[in-house]
């Protein structure tokens, strides 16, 4: 190989190494403290949803959302992204596991 080819090859390897390092450095490696999509968080939201739903009959989604937000186990700092759309998603997720869930 000619010296120019070695320089080009070395530059390519160095650039590839730098690119891989940048991807590794900027990818999140640990969960955020307020990540509400973990299985534990979803389970807690489902438990709160079922408790609120069983405590009152004939709730619509808006009322269920309000009751869940007022629940004593609901952590507003952890579930700060929770909204009515997320509640609908949670209901559908729960219905897939338990098809006879009534709302």
Offer a few descriptive terms:
103 residues; mainly alpha; 4 helices
Notes on the protein architecture:
The protein has 103 residues and is an all-alpha fold. The protein has two domains: 1-30; 39-97. 63% of the residues lie in helices and 0% in strands. It has helices at 3-26, 39-55, 61-70, 84-97. The chain crosses the membrane at residues 6-24. Keywords: Membrane, Transmembrane, Transmembrane helix.
Tally of separate domains = 2
The helix content is 55-70%
| N-C termini distance | 73 Å
- The beta-strand count equals 0
Discrete helix count: 4
Write a short abstract of this structure.
By secondary structure, this protein is an all-alpha fold.
Question: In terms of topology, how is this protein built?
Answer:
Elements: H1 3-26, H2 39-55, H3 61-70, H4 84-97
Keywords: Membrane, Transmembrane, Transmembrane helix
Transmembrane segments: 6-24
């Amino acid at each position: 190989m000619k010296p120019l080819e070695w320089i080009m090859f070395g530059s390519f390897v160095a650039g590839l190494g730098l690119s891989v390092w940048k991807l590794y450095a900027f990818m999140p490696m640990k969960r955020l403290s307020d990540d509400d999509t973990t299985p534990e968080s979803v389970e807690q939201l489902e438990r709160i949803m079922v408790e609120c739903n069983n405590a009152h009959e004939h709730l619509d989604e808006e009322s269920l959302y309000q009751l869940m937000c007022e629940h004593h186990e609901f952590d507003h700092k952890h579930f700060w992204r929770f909204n009515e759309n997320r509640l609908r998603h949670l209901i559908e997720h729960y219905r897939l596991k338990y098809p006879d869930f009534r709302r």
